[in-house]
Amino acid sequence: MEILQLSKETIDTCVVRATEVLRAGGVILYPTDTLYGLGADALSDEAVAKVYDIKRRDELKPIHAIVADLEMAERYAEVNDEMRVLERELPKGKITFIVKKKNFNTGIMHGIETFGFRIPDNDFCIALARTFDGPITATSANKAEKVPERSIKAILAQLGDVTSDIDLVIDTGELPSQKPSTVVDMTGDRPLIVREGAIAAPELWNAIHDEY
């Protein structure tokens, strides 16, 4: 397992190395703007299977991804005007959209009709998504049903022997406690809040109503 320390001085090196690992079908452990996540090529069946194995996660439970911006998301899914409003008006990195996918059936979209994604408010994550030029899994780095830890040492201890399946660790120290993103299903006639997190429901509804 390779470990790189992330800082303002090393961000470019970390992005390049992480991109190499992702393109080779590997798995990275990396910091997002909420928790440390397990990153893999979100369109690769093999890479996504590794993430499920590391988490011991039920394969029927979908995994979401990060993308650099809505333009990237539109390659893979349907983006509507309400989503553009929410992305523009709400704090960055705080909302995960579930949307109807386009003609993809691999990786995190295999066997389902949706694509879940978040646009992070994190320089490393955005640079990584742009350099990799595609969606990257962003599921929290913890065993299924276990509370996510906020430091690399604690995460690796919780995951146990499956850490051998992680190719690269990007370590930026212990992350502060953060609320998870608010998950919004955009596949119906109107948005449906699946999980209320960093964005409270009234704030989301106000953003839409103020626009229309």
From TrEMBL:
Its EC number is 2.7.7.87. GO terms for biological process: regulation of translational fidelity; tRNA processing. Gene3D superfamilies: DHBP synthase. The lineage of its organism: Bacteria, Candidatus Kaiseribacteriota. It comes from Candidatus Kaiserbacteria bacterium CG10_big_fil_rev_8_21_14_0_10_51_14. Its main location: cytoplasm. It is found in: Cytoplasm. The keyword Iron does not apply. It comes from the Bacteria. This is L-threonylcarbamoyladenylate synthase. NCBIfam families: L-threonylcarbamoyladenylate synthase (TIGR00057). InterPro entries: DHBP_synth_RibB-like_a/b_dom, Sua5-like_dom, TC-AMP_synthase_SUA5.
